[in-house]
Amino acid sequence: MADFIQWRPHPWHGLTIGPAAPELVNAFIEVTPFDLVKYEVDKATGYMRVDRPHRTSSLPPTLYGFVPRTYCGSRVQALMPGASRGDEDPLDICVISERPIARAEVIVTARVLGGLPMLDGGEADDKIVAVLANDEIWADVRDISQLPERYVARLRHYFSTYKTLPGEPAIVEVGEPYSREHAVRVIEAAVRDYQDEFGD
């Protein structure tokens, strides 16, 4: 008989980071490109909570969620120039899929390509960029530099503006994308931050 988990695990603490982390990771998806509302896992219960309606008219360009058993603490902060601290959340991840996936609260296996360095109110809030691991259209892409430039620009624009209405001062800074090698370092730092905060 195959192993199984009798009770539903907490998505952040009960799922594994993935089969071949940090290159291949599990991503728990909270929001899809079709959601007009930002959903977020409730940290205490593991259930999905309505965080807020999107403030602007733009929608996330990709699947969006987090890597289980990661935490953005002092080690992640040290990798982000200008950060005063980590945001104390699990590490965010954007997962590109050629076929539309309209359902959230699913686990996908994602191949890490790189990331976007984001400062949100001075806190390190990296966005790892990945592709669905078994997506045939993106099968040959191994680094963020291989993605269409316009696609990466769309991601940067979304995160630069998704919290800010016209006329308001920007609270988010999104830098130039970083490579898969640096993304691996960020993931490894987030795993160690998680272990420091919560144990193994």
Structure overview:
- The protein has helices spanning 74-78, 149-161, 180-198, and strands spanning 24-31, 37-41, 48-53, 63-66, 85-86, 92-96, 107-116, 118-120, 123-124, 127-132, 172-174.
- It is an alpha+beta fold.
- The protein has one domain: Alpha-Beta Complex (Inorganic Pyrophosphatase), CATH 3.90.80.10.
- A hairpin with a 6-residue loop joins strand 2 (37-41) and strand 3 (48-53).
- The chain is globular, with a radius of gyration of 16 Å.
- The mean pLDDT is 94.
Summarize the structure.
It contains three helices and eleven strands, in the order ββββαββββββαβα.
| CATH architecture name | Alpha-Beta Complex
Q: Give the number of domains.
A: 1
Continuous helix count: 3
Morphology call: globular
Strand content: 25-35%
Distance between the termini: 27 Å
What is the topology?
Layout: E1 24-31, E2 37-41, E3 48-53, E4 63-66, H1 74-78, E5 85-86, E6 92-96, E7 107-116, E8 118-120, E9 123-124, E10 127-132, H2 149-161, E11 172-174, H3 180-198
Parallel strand pairs: 5-9, 6-10
Antiparallel strand pairs: 1-4, 1-7, 2-3, 4-6, 7-10, 8-9, 8-11
